[in-house]
Amino acid sequence: MKFFIDTANLDQIREANALGILDGVTTNPSLMAKEGITGEANIINHYKAICEIVDGDVSAEVISTDFEGMVREGEALAALHPNIVVKVPMIVDGLKAISYFSRKGIRTNCTLVFSAGQAILAAKAGATYLSPFIGRIDDSSWDGMDLIGQIANIYSIQGYETQILAASIRNPLHIVKSAELGADVVTCPLSAIMGLFKHPLTDIGLAQFLADHKKANG
Ligand code: E4P
């Protein structure tokens, strides 16, 4: 399972990259706005900066909601760097755009996915990645992990090549469950990745090893 970080914060991207386990980055318009990245030129420069830090796929989301606009934006984004993946929302024109990009060899991440039906459409259109939003489903008292399992089952039965990118991850357990259920990728906030380290027995064991070493060696 690949690990992406879900942020536009360059410091956090560097920190995750330094762990040596980072395979890519996802962003969205809200994450870019949170970092104060506004205006077309700044947004483009920010994507380029991310691509310079991480040697892996970087999802850059289109803002247009019509086919022509998505194609125009997506082609410009894809031309920025070979690692850019064009992120397209799961709407009718979005599906048409994914299909167009697929025929042109431009890689896509179909975002805002909340059902297995949407997952089937995206795979049929040739999306490279599919982003089901686990946390937002949990937030509405459905089980986001059930959707990951259902999509993984369908994709396996049907032989679809679209990679399942578990998104809207809120905690380390979402990461573990995504791995169990066969997600190809997880995109996580840095806090969820760092949460994977945590176990009190690791801390207690290390403290004991160091204390015993000190006692024996002075
Ligand atoms: C990533 O591709 C998604 O845009 C992101 O994971 C959404 O996460 P959120 O539900 O925490 O905003």
Helicity level: 40-55%
Number of helical segments with 4 or more residues: 11
One letter per element, helices H and strands E, the order comes to: EHEHHEHEHEHEHHEHEHH
The overall pLDDT average reads: 98
State the end-to-end CA separation: 44 Å
Per the principal axes of the C-alpha atoms, what is the gross shape? globular
Instruction: Report the structural category.
Output: alpha/beta
The counted number of beta strands is 8
Provide the gyration radius in Å.
Answer: 19 Å
Enumerate the spans where pLDDT stays under 50 for 5 or more consecutive residues.
none
The largest beta-sheet arranges its strands as 1-2-3-4-5-6-7-8
Bound molecules: erythose-4-phosphate
Strand content: 15-25%
Largest sheet: 8 strands, parallel, barrel
What does this structure look like?
By secondary structure, the chain is α/β, with parallel strands linked by helices. It contains eleven helices and eight strands. Helices cover 55% and strands 17% of the residues. An eight-stranded parallel barrel has the order 1-2-3-4-5-6-7-8, surrounded by seven helices. It is globular. The N and C termini lie far apart (44 Å). The model has no long low-confidence stretch (mean pLDDT 98). The structure holds erythose-4-phosphate. Erythose-4-phosphate binds next to helix 7.
